[in-house]
Amino acid sequence: MDVAVSLPxxxxxxxxxxxxxxxxxxxxxxxxGLADYLESDMSACNRVIVERMQSSVALIPQLAAxxxxxxxKRLRPLLTLAAARLCGYDNQDGRMRHVEIAACVEFIHTxxxxxxxxxxxxxxxxxxxxxxxxxxxxxxxLVGDFLFARSFQILTADASLDIMAILSxxxxxxxxGEVMQMTTQNDLSTSVDQYLQVxxxxxxxxxxxxxxxxxxxxxxxxxQREALRLYGANLGMAFQLVDDALDYAADQAVLGxxxxxxxxxxxxxxxxxxxxxxxxxxxxxxxxRVIEDSEQTPDDLPAALERIAHTDAIxxxxxxxxxxxxxxxxxxxxxxxxxxxxxLLDTASYSVSREH
Length: 356
Description:
Number of helices: 17
Mean pLDDT: 86
Low-confidence stretches: 1-27
Oligomer: single chain
């Protein structure tokens, strides 16, 4: 028996309380503008997502409905839609390919979130209980596999070897990034370059692929295709750097997940590396105990937040994020001025001013 899954028709973001009323937060205007501009395309993408999440196995749509209720920016599919439109795609083939591939990108992303939450033992996702907290680890892993399979079906139906190559390579890189993060966990000897490789793999690779796939759909030339890939890659780097900063500097109610998750899991992120490098011997002893030795008490998170706050760790992280956002904006310099280009530039700026 199928369980109905529904999404709001609009591609716009919704409030945390589920009211459906978008409440702007500082820096969100850029992303909201992109969602508004692509509202019709995103609504069509949402319909594809809902349709492809249906199954006669009741647990699959039940868990899918939970994921839908949690909301999210849906930035990756928006990037695919935007890139295709920027390159002049106008449904000339009558297939709405950009919508189908955008849904495929979202399925890949959602599948990785389900798997990551199991690996990280996360209890919250976007302010709600995570799927694994409600349905269990086995169900989350298997539904993640189902979503990956759905993405394969969409790619097969599209029949573009270029897009298959782009998204299959990105999927492999996503897995590599998560494995690399696991190997650097609890290791304060991790270099900044190694950390940047991790966040490229776990986040930026799919941003890059989402944009490049849109460029292929729009039949862009090789220079524009590469420009959009670079835009996505740099945007993804900026997003993940800000995520890592927010884990030590955000309001939990706004962030939508538990502040300090990375700390509790012993993840080595740039705020920790910067604070460790800037600290005195007492600070370094603290970080070695809580990160490398995984010996944490209830008082250690507030102590870590205080140490982060007393260094330039957050400023260093955000400055690096701004560098990547600037590179993302620069990547679009070869495109003619138009509304969607402006919105993509604004989205790059939003990536470093957001609160969640």
